[in-house]
């Protein structure tokens, strides 16, 4: 049935009404930390009894709310906690990370950046310039394709294969340089390499004369919430500097992850086999 047809319009109105009712139920429950009974909710929401019952059952199944059979009260469920923690870590990420980003910049005098994943792009949320600023296209508030950046690949390496396939398998991989990844299969190989070596690398895949090392930041439940990177001119990218940069980048990334709630900052690498000799082959 076409979305513009009368039937399609009524379905959309029904969906919007259901979503509005979910928000209303959660808002009312938020005012009662000790919980509310079915009768309490019925009186406050003024919904049909059958509609409220169906709505509550759906929210219980998704763990958004829970029902205590002894007290006969409804409360917020564990899903609310997960969502609130994700939001908390998102808005606190930059203030927590900022001194560590400055420390990383001061140690190597290279440009340090931080980004978060937004759909198929990364959004830059922090940048600390070196004393010899690179001519980078990125700036705080800008977006770039995740597959063409070190920060993006670090973030994608934290995702499970099902999530990756759903979003990235049929993506149009635009080529920015001769080094840009060109397919989903190439992306998967690159992410496996990133997990094995413990960092992501941009080999001039968006800007040909720039190299970038990146490491993901994990938060609550060891989920990827951001990534940090060090960018430098291609001529400065030597094996000796690479080893120094990687060790400190990993250390700083793990410190930030612990600060914002990760119990295992290296969890994103689990399931991969360590491959220490790869570093010289990356240059």
From TrEMBL:
Residues 79-262 form the IclR-ED domain. Signal peptide: none annotated. The keyword Transferase does not apply. GO terms for biological process: negative regulation of DNA-templated transcription. Residues 16-78 form the HTH iclR-type domain. GO terms for molecular function: DNA binding; DNA-binding transcription factor activity. SMART domains: HTH_ICLR. Pfam families: HTH_IclR (PF09339), IclR_C (PF01614). This is IclR family transcriptional regulator.
